[in-house]
Amino acid sequence: MRMSRLFLRTLRDDPADAEIDSHRLLLRAGCIRRLSSGIYAWLPVGQRVLAKVAQIVREEMDAAGAQEMTLPIAQPLELWRESGRDAAYGPLMFRLQDRKDTEFCLSPTAEEAITSIVAGEYSSYRDLPLNVYQINWKYRDELRPRFGLLRAREFLMKDAYSFHVDAEDLKRTYRDMYDAYTRVFERCGLTFRAVEGEAGEIGGDVNHEFMAVAAVGEDDFVWCKSCDYAANVEVARRGSQRVERVADRPARERLHTPDMPGIVAVAEHLGVGTGELLKCIAFDLDGQPAIALVPGDREVNPVALAQAVAPRTARLYDDDDFAAHPELAKGYIGPDAAGVALVVADPLVSEPRGWVTGANEVDHHVRDAVLGRDFEVHQWADLVAVVPGDPCPRCGSPLSVDRGIEVGQVFELGTKYAEALHALYTDEAGDQHPMVMGCYGIGISRIVTAVVEEHHDDDGITWPAALAPYAVHLLSLPGKGAAADEVRAAAERVYEELSDAGIDVLYDDRDASPGVKFADADLLGMPVRLTVGAKGVARGIVERRWRASGEQDELALDVVVAALS
Question: What is the pTM of this model?
Answer without folding.
Answer: 0.85
